[in-house]
Amino acid sequence: MKKKPIKNSANDLYDIYKFPEELxxxxxxxxxxxxxxxxxxxxxCFWILxxxxxxxxxxxxxxxxxxxxxxxxGDTFDLTCSDENGANLFMIKNPKFEFYFDYLKIIKKDNLxxxxxxxxxx
Length: 122
Fold this sequence. Notes:
Helix content: 10-25%
Largest sheet: 7 strands, mixed
Radius of gyration: 14 Å
Number of helices: 3
Shape: globular
Order of helices and strands: HEEHHEEEEE
Distance between the termini: 38 Å
Strand order of the largest sheet: 1-2-7-6-3-4-5
Strand content: 25-35%
């Protein structure tokens, strides 16, 4: 089956964070970067952070988790988590979310959640 090209990625719009900023504590369990905080606030998508935080007990402690939200169609998405080698760790198929963008990638490393552009800042 041929994959549809990504129409619009939140990462493209939020690809502006090039300097380390103050971290924010989220749910008393993880730190989030300014990029993640701005994304969640501006796009009203704290729900994706909640999914990431709430499912940590189900995931192996691999160090790096790559979370990807991709639109299937309409308001239906697939949410996947993989390790840095591409091995699938977690998947939720077809949840419905209100989210403008077709794609979003978020990285969790240890106790920090950040955007890919912020990878080498912390």
